């Protein structure tokens, strides 16, 4: 197959799960990546500048700018670089994200809040499936929306789409889900702290509500600190506990769905093994739990992870077809909306019960 000429060669990130089995783009010098990487980097840089100066969520800005510039991908010279950014940068970004989590942080949450967090995540995931059924979409759209809402927003959606596959869910639906999740996080970051204040929640209760129900990591932490420093610290622990569950949930979804049509020829042990970047994520979390890294290193790692994920999301948006997005319509956001509401109400119910007890 002519990799460069294939109409599907650039779909999203070439299927994360394909790993080493993905057909190589030929024995060319790395310079063939430059056009796509330059275009993606420029768009991501603009998104970062707008986010820094106007306070918009950086992932959402990357998505919108990438979608606006999707005409660039008509030039096939950009395909290799965009595919590299959306595939390799994504994997590395998820791995580096593990440096923000330790098993001690999860343990510090306590058994009861952690159990409640698992219930809230299960409700959000189930609500995504229900929303897909209500809007007459496939269960894969529900899995993507429910998983992104339950775990950690855009990065979880990217990881889940790697095991769902482009054969089972269109790239346009994926891009629209990313937009919905990012918008929901931005709205929640503005509204949830105010609601927690109106309900008279203390710092810990507000931190749990915010950390357990806002999708993206940055928005959850920002919402917590918007309430108070104590609430921000607790929201961070709660949110990172959700992020730590990314690997097991992606592995369970992979086993549940089985291999996609493009993976059936692979050996069984390869088809049902977790993607390498998920295994590496767990290893990094374990390393971070055993070795005390300097705060400067963790801060740099967080910035690096954000940059890599921004490049991946921007490249994905630049490779999306606007005509398919328009054809899907806003009805396709139903799973995200239902899962978001269910996540918030479940977290609110737990906090309210803790007040009563």
Automatic annotation (TrEMBL):
The keyword Transmembrane helix applies. InterPro entries: UPF0324_pro (IPR018383). The chain crosses the membrane at residues 56-72, 84-103, 109-130, 142-162, 174-195, 233-256, 276-293, 299-318, 330-355. It holds the Pfam family Cons_hypoth698. It is found in: Cell membrane. Keywords: Cell membrane, Membrane, Transmembrane, Transmembrane helix. It is a multi-pass membrane protein. GO terms for cellular component: plasma membrane. Belongs to the UPF0324 family. This is Sulfate exporter family transporter.
């Amino acid at each position: 197959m002519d990799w460069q000429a294939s109409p599907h060669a650039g779909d999203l990130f070439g299927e994360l799960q394909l790993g080493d089995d993905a057909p190589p783009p030929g024995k060319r010098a790395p310079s063939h990546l430059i056009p796509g990487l330059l275009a993606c980097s420029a768009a991501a840089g603009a998104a970062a500048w707008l986010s820094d100066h106007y306070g918009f969520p950086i992932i959402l800005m990357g998505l919108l700018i990438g979608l606006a510039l999707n005409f660039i991908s008509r030039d096939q010279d950009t395909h290799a670089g965009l595919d590299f950014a959306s595939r390799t940068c994504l994997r590395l970004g998820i791995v580096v994200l593990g440096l923000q989590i330790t098993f001690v942080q999860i343990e510090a949450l306590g058994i009861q809040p952690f159990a409640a967090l698992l219930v809230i995540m299960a409700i959000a995931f189930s609500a995504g499936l229900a929303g897909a059924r209500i809007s007459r979409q496939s269960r894969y759209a529900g899995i993507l929306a429910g998983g992104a809402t339950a775990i950690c927003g855009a990065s979880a959606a990217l990881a889940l789409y790697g095991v769902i596959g482009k054969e089972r869910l269109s790239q346009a639906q994926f891009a629209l889900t990313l937009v919905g999740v990012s918008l929901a996080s931005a709205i929640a970051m503005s509204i949830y702290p105010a609601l927690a204040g109106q309900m008279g929640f203390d710092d810990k209760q507000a931190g749990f509500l915010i950390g357990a129900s806002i999708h993206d990591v940055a928005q959850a932490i920002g919402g917590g600190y918007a309430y108070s420093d104590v609430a921000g610290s607790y929201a961070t622990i709660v949110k990172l506990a959700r992020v730590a569950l990314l690997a097991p949930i992606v592995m369970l979804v992979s086993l549940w769905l089985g291999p996609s049509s493009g993976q059936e020829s692979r050996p069984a042990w390869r088809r049902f093994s977790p993607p390498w970047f998920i295994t590496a994520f767990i290893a990094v979390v374990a390393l971070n739990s055993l070795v005390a890294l300097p705060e400067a290193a963790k801060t740099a790692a967080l910035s690096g992870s954000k940059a890599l994920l921004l490049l991946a999301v921007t490249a994905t948006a630049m490779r999306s077809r606007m005509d398919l997005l328009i054809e899907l319509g806003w009805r396709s956001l139903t799973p995200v909306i239902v899962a978001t509401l269910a996540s918030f109400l479940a977290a609110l119910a737990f906090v309210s019960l803790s007040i009563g007890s």
